[in-house]
Amino acid sequence: MDFSPLRGFRVLLPEEARILQRVEDTLRTVFTLYGFEEVVLPTLEPFSLFERKSGEEIEKHMYTFTDFGGRKVALRPEFTPSAARLFVQRAGELKLPVKWSYFGSVFRYDEPQKMRYREFWQAGVELIGASSVESDLEVISLVIDSMLALGFKDFRVEVNDVRIFREMLGQEGFNPDQQYRVMLVIDKRNKVSEETFERDLLAALDGRKELFDRIMFVLGLRKKSPGESLAILEEPKLRQVIERLIKLFDLGKEVGLSKWILFSPNIVRGLAYYTGMVFEVLVEGIPYSVCGGGRYDNLISLYGGPDIPCVGMSFGVDRLVEAAMEKRIIKVGERRPVFVAYIGQELKPLALKTARDLRMAGIKTDVELRERPLSKQLEYANKRGCKLAVLLGKRELERKAVKIRDLDSGEELEIPLDRLIEEIRGKLA
RNA sequence: GCCGCGGUGGCGUAGCGGUAGCGUGGGGGCCUGUGGAGCCCCUGGCCCGGGUUCGAAUCCCGGCCGCGGCCCCA
Q1: CA of A379 to C1' of B37 (A)
Q2: ipTM of this complex
Q3: Would you report the helix, strand and coil content of chain A in percent, each value rounded to 5?
Q4: A231 touches A239 (CB < 8 A)
Q5: Nearest nucleotide relative to A54: CA against C1'
Q6: Nucleotides of B under 7 A from a protein CB
Q7: pLDDT in tens, A224-236
């Protein structure tokens, strides 16, 4: 009988769980500072909720089953549809813009590989009801501050607008399906050789050399500012889109964010549902993006709500953890516990009471639970990483005193029993 | 769904056709009031299923799992 976890599912030991939680707590703090309020959404949803947004094909990548009520249900593969549904149901009582955040794991039935699991953690926000450049920047700013709060220094937010290529291709008579195929090629720009890329791109463009050249030209504008780009781009239809990007970058500059924001025309996020600005966050030397987001103005109406614009993003929390470990920026510092040891079984009740007193005083405390000899108790305390041990022994108790041992230095100190808590507080400080 | 490499105690490894060893961890002892040292004992393993063979951890096939890649990535 094999009870192993399922393929692609992970078990986190205390050290790893602690790091994950630390990352989540940091994100939660920043999200809150930006005024996003956390909502808790169902893990299991009607399958149709996801089908609506992503189409039937999506079932191949989801965990679905029929419940005892005969309903077709699915483990959530993302949060956005649940948030959109919640908004639609409550739209009447919500003041716009609505700012929500969410945390939790999502499930996707893919082949596991590096940084791709079947259950992974996300943390994201949805900003519903604002179409302004300011709302785009609000999300990007939140992302940058989150990265900084986590301790990342060398990261960049690569920003684009999906309308740039869509407009170009649309003008040339490419239908959305054909456009999508071109976008897929562009998305892979950095993953394949330049020759392969150019060959595939030309093929996706039906061999239209002149269009190919224009796209290559735009792609060449990577890392240039949108301002520069506009100056050399003679695409009247694109003017509006580029002007909006320029506004975004100018605004970012005024807010002091330009150091991290980068124009990157090859970011297309491979998704059909984005309608404007899109971005990804990349950390120097890490081959996968840790965050992605953008504007999807027809999301709410897709779920039967009013025509309300929407921008959002989500962090891959696992990927942040992995990247942070790689960059060694995680401080795993933890409050070290105090250990209450006792010598002689008759002191067991006093040991338990002492442990509880310490805990009630807010001091993280372990106590001997196995009736072992003192040497073993101390050995265990050391393995647990305890900073101090309280030694309860008859000899000292006759004088109403206990010993405190510093497990790092080995130093021992006898103190009156009624001063125990203050002494320990002092030692731990 | 496809391709490559791999799977030996909890973890790390040796063995690569003939009794499965070591390190570490865990439990205990030497030590009935002072630990992380040392010595000793115990614990516990060849991913699963077929096949080849007198004999398989070892060779072959399939599956499962892991790692990496392709496809994909809401």
Answers
A1: 12
A2: 0.84
A3: 45, 20, 35
A4: no
A5: B74
A6: 1-2, 26, 28-29, 31-36, 47, 64-74
A7: 877 777 666 667 7
